[in-house]
């Protein structure tokens, strides 16, 4: 999948029309994304996010949830603290 829009730093829209909210601790990873960046969506195995977006070029991963949903209570703070 390719990026259709990434106007807000924390939300990315893919060319299939889906919109994903990026985990706050992973925003720096998205700075190198360009419209031609090939991304793959995979289910997540952690408590913070439902899915991960994987950059096909460098295999970097960012945690995401469907745009408009809210992050699990307390899990964001734990993850940002490294717990």
Q: In short, what is this structure?
A:
By secondary structure, the protein is mainly beta. 8% of the residues lie in helices and 33% in strands. The protein is built from one helix and six strands.
Task: Describe the structure in your own words.
By secondary structure, this protein is mainly β. The protein has one domain (3-81). Helices cover 8% and strands 33% of the residues. The chain has one helix and six strands. It has one helix at residues 75-81, and strands at residues 3-5, 11-14, 19-22, 39-43, 51-55, 61-66. It has a six-stranded antiparallel beta sheet with strand order 1-2-3-6-5-4, with no helix packed on it. A hairpin with a 4-residue loop joins strand 2 (11-14) and strand 3 (19-22). The chain is globular. The mean pLDDT is 90.
Task: Describe the protein's topology.
Layout: E1 3-5, E2 11-14, E3 19-22, E4 39-43, E5 51-55, E6 61-66, H1 75-81
Antiparallel strand pairs: 1-2, 2-3, 3-6, 4-5, 5-6
Rg from C-alpha positions?
12 Å
Count of structural domains: 1
Average per-residue pLDDT, rounded, comes to 90
Topology as a string of helices (H) and strands (E): EEEEEEH
Low-confidence stretches: none
Counting helices, strands and paired strands, the structural category is: mainly beta
Please give the number of β-strands: 6
Please bin the fraction of helical residues. Answer: under 10%
Large-scale geometry = globular
Fraction in beta strands: 25-35%
Biggest sheet features? 6 strands, antiparallel
- CA distance, first residue to last residue: 32 Å
Strand order of the largest sheet: 1-2-3-6-5-4
- Tally of contiguous helical segments: 1
